[in-house]
Inverse folding.
């Protein structure tokens, strides 16, 4: 009888511990222009796991946001950007592997999402390390109609249209690049970086270095409570 009670108590303890876990993993990107917190999606396990591993290893620390286009996106994660000379063309650095795409029609290029950069490979496999955060712009129905007829191979769902018309984003990237997270706090950092002065290769004239860390469990739970993430 006592053994049975002990087993029940252990099971209840494990359930309580599991229930206390955050719903998602979060990473913090800090720069001289501010910081943001990004929620990694559970629906894209391979991309999220890879980003967490690189972050844990300190891979991104000291790398630059090396490609910045206002009203479009900011890109980083090139290992060659560490200590790169001023004006050097960046964007070719990588880790020697790619990640199979994890496309999901519910995860699209609204403002603030984290997505994987890639080259023009036919499989649309993602870079093992380079990423971008969408700044984007707001679209009208007429502009979205034009995109559908001239550039896209699909119709944009009505609910996504509303987001592109109100929050903004980059709809022409949908179904081409894997989206695997989103900024949940500190979008101001992205907007500040996006308007930095750049050279002819879209590299900021002033280096924007990043430090990337994983949000600890207690901080993640506090964030989810604050933002009412269920």
């Amino acid at each position: 009888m006592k053994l049975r009670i002990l087993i029940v108590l252990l099971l209840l303890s494990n359930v309580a511990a599991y229930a206390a876990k955050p719903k998602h993993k979060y990473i913090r990107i800090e720069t001289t222009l501010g910081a943001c917190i990004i929620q990694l999606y559970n629906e894209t396990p391979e991309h999220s796991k890879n980003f967490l591993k690189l972050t844990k290893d300190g891979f991104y620390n000291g790398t630059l946001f090396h490609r910045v286009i206002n009203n479009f996106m900011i890109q980083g994660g090139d290992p060659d950007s560490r200590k790169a000379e001023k004006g050097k063309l960046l964007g070719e650095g990588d880790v020697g592997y790619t990640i199979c795409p994890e496309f999901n029609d519910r995860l699209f290029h609204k403002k603030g999402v984290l997505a994987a950069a890639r080259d023009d490979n036919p499989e649309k496999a993602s870079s093992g390390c380079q990423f971008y955060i969408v700044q984007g712009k707001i679209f009208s129905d007429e502009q979205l109609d034009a995109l559908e007829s001239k550039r896209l191979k699909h119709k944009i769902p009505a609910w996504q249209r509303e987001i592109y018309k109100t929050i903004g984003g980059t709809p022409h990237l949908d179904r081409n690049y894997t989206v695997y997270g989103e900024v949940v706090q500190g979008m101001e950092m992205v907007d500040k970086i996006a308007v930095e002065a750049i050279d002819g290769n879209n590299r900021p004239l002033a280096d924007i270095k990043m430090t990337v860390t994983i949000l600890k469990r207690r901080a993640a739970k506090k964030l989810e409570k604050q933002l009412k993430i269920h």
Remarks:
- Strands lie at 25-31, 34-40, 65-69, 73-76, 98-99, 113-116, 126-127, 131-134, 179-185, 211-214.
- Residues 22-227 form a domain with the Cyclophilin fold (CATH 2.40.100.10).
- The two ends are 38 Å apart (CA to CA).
- The chain has one domain: 22-227.
